[in-house]
Amino acid sequence: MAKAIKIDKALEKQFPSNSSKKKNDKELVTYFLIVCEGKKTEPNYFKSFPKKVGKYVYNIELDGGGISTLKVVEKAIELRDKSTQKYDRVWAVFDRDSFKANSFNSAILKAKANNIACAWSNEAFELWYLLHFQYRNSGMKRQMYEKAIEDAVNEKLKNKNKPFKYKKNDPNMFTILSKTGSQDLAIKWAEDLDTKFVGQNFSQYNPCTKVYKLVLELTGKSEELNAELVEKFNKGE
Predict the structure, then answer these.
(1) Which of 28, 70, 93, 172 is the most exposed place for a label (fewest CB within 10 A)?
(2) Strand ordering across the sheet containing 208-209
(3) Which residues are CB-contacts of 191 (< 8 A; sequence separation ≥ 6)?
């Protein structure tokens, strides 16, 4: 499934001006593997990102397993190592929920040891949704997040005849959030929450979500990834 990422114009200036027309016309494909804890919620969201922007095309393989935190990481490692495709990025996406603290912490440490990026959330993925509307610095249960998301969306829509009702596997969440919330604010507030925690006792980082790091890459706002793409282009890969 192809996804596209926009490269910042400032970075585009780094491309050699004397490149051949054939090279300049080349589409640059970057390969992602995203393995999710949930079967539909997270995959539905990530597959909704724009498919193509300019010359830059992302080929994203999504896997929704409905499995535990550690199993998500192990599956990401297994799929990466067995694949004939060399992935530019491999991500594991999972929540703390009711999983034991040691299992949650171990999953993150194992991912780091095996060069797997983690877009984890404590306590629930819905924290990332809610940050599109409001800053949240105290933890809630998933059901409370869902209610808060409903209230925030309905406040924007102001449609009393057909109020928005949050559905966990809703394939339209990306569109709904784009129309009623702010992805830029979500990134800003998630980054702020992230700076409040240090150490490796990740289960105590509540609320916190690393989803913003994956979103930065999927929207062309990751300076690190963009620099890699420029280098990849210059090498003609």
Answers:
(1) 172
(2) 2-3, 56-64, 28-36, 89-95, 117-122, 208-209
(3) 212
